[in-house]
Write a structure and sequence with these properties.
With about 425 residues, the chain is α/β, with parallel strands linked by helices. Among the domains are: about 130 residues, Nitrogenase molybdenum iron protein domain (Rossmann fold), CATH 3.40.50; about 120 residues, Nitrogenase molybdenum iron protein domain (Rossmann fold, 3-Layer(aba) Sandwich). The protein is about 45% helix and about 15% strand. Strand 6, helix 10 and strand 7 form a beta-alpha-beta unit. Helix 7 packs parallel to helix 10, helix 11 runs antiparallel to helix 12 and helix 11 packs across helix 14. The model has no long low-confidence stretch (mean pLDDT about 90).
């Protein structure tokens, strides 16, 4: 019997067009039905160099279902190369072509000698969500474009973290992580965002190692790069937010990269001194306010639920109620992620549920006794249920409807301070 899913937080794998779009001067070419791009794009910062409104698309119809759409795909790629000035062309397939058996990979292979690289990623919606599609795009770059090299640049580190656009703060987060890694004397290399494109992609094989900051998204791609390009990887499961986790992150990266321990500790000392100076200035509000209860709930993807839970417990001393991971985390990763929720300070453990049904999540939130005004951090879907509980709500994840974010971020020491500002701005506003 079919299952109804209320308030789903992710998109189909074709949503990976936004991962392509986040690479400057990279163009998605869609082999899909008409309207897919418009339905999957977001109004929150998704225009840029190429707007989803102009993505080349085969717009397959009933005739193509019967006779196949490979000729149409061939002409669409050919014309895109002629009229659109891009550095990388990425063909993404929707459901219809893959159901009818179009050999899109073979069509793309005909453009192997083009003046610009053309690659292909199978992103039919029935194959998974846009987190999976994001991995497919990275794998396509590795498998079809990059070559293994013995040339290594000392200190060069490829950094992989947020899924662009699915995470509202992806751009600011990755830039802040770059800054932190640079302070250790390493050279960060990322492929998403401002001035990040084909040049940074070309440097990937020269890195000494890959740094993946994610509970699960990207793990398979890192293993693929290890096999294909011979690049080892460091997997740091928690997005570092605030002093406790960011200091642990820097020590872990520094040790893995062979950075002098004194350099790492000096960076941490300077960062922590300023961080705790800012905390002390508002300690009375944190300790004595009457409108934020000690218990909180986070409703988001695994990255933010884990990162924010650790931050609120370890840095602010709050107590976790049930936490909800909504990104449809594959089963093989769930036990490891659950273990991370037991790795909190003061012996505290958080109960976590991998749930994609918004109705069930809201019912559990409504039925939980928070012993006061709850703090709920999640998507805009959680605003109404939080207001009914007279709680404090902060929109930190998809869907986002009450803020515009250009390059704000929650990663690192500075990101932790920004998250505190956002949370307690909600609290202070209630005094009035």
């Amino acid at each position: 019997m079919a299952k109804l899913l209320d308030k789903q937080r992710y998109k189909c794998a074709l949503g990976a067009m936004q991962s392509v779009q986040a690479i400057q001067r990279a163009l998605p070419i869609l082999h899909s039905g008409p309207g897919c791009a418009q339905k999957l794009c977001e109004s929150v910062g998704s225009s840029g160099y190429f707007s989803p409104n102009i993505f080349p698309c085969t717009s397959v119809n009933e005739k193509d279902v019967v006779f196949g759409g490979v000729k149409k795909l061939d002409s669409t790629i050919e014309n895109a190369l002629k009229v659109i000035d891009a550095d990388l062309y990425v063909v993404l397939t929707g459901c219809i072509p893959e159901i009818v058996g179009d050999d899109s990979e073979e069509v793309v292979s005909r453009f192997a000698d083009s003046r610009k690289p053309v690659i292909y990623a199978p992103t039919a919606g029935f194959k998974g969500n846009n987190y999976k599609g994001h991995e497919q795009v990275i794998d396509a770059i590795v498998n079809q474009y990059l070559k293994k090299t013995d040339k290594k640049q000392k200190g060069l580190v490829n950094i992989w973290a947020d899924v662009p656009y699915q995470d509202l703060f992806w751009l600011g987060n990755i830039r802040e992580i770059e800054k932190l890694v640079s302070e250790l004397g390493l050279i960060p290399n990322t492929i998403f965002g401002y001035q990040r494109g084909i040049g940074q992609i070309n440097k990937i094989p020269e890195a000494e190692f890959n740094l993946l900051i994610s509970p699960w998204v990207g793990v398979s791609s890192m293993k693929n790069m290890e096999r294909k390009l011979g690049i080892p990887f460091l997997h740091y499961k928690t997005l570092p937010i605030g002093a406790t986790e960011t200091s642990r992150f820097l020590r872990t990266v520094g040790e893995y990269a062979g950075v002098d321990k004194e350099i790492t500790e000096e960076v941490i000392r300077k960062k922590e001194d300023y961080y705790y100076y800012l905390i002390e200035r508002y300690a009375d509000i944190f300790l004595e306010n009457r409108v934020i209860n000690k218990q909180f709930t986070v409703v988001s993807d695994a990255q933010y639920v884990l990162g924010i839970t650790k931050f609120l417990v370890n840095d602010l001393g709050l107590i976790p109620a049930k936490q909800f991971v909504v990104d449809d985390t594959p089963n093989k990763y769930r036990e490891e992620i659950k273990e991370e929720f037991k790795n909190l300070n003061y012996g505290i453990k958080a109960d976590v549920s991998f749930e994609t049904d918004g109705y069930k999540i809201h019912e559990e939130i409504k039925n939980h006794d928070y012993h006061g005004y709850p703090l709920v951090l999640g998507g805009y879907y959680e605003k109404e249920v939080t207001e009914k509980l007279k709680g404090n709500f902060l929109n930190i994840s998809y869907p986002v409807q009450d803020k515009v974010v250009l390059d704000n971020f929650y990663a690192g020491y500075a990101g932790g301070i920004r998250l505190i500002e956002d949370i307690y701005t909600v609290a202070v506003s209630r005094f009035n």
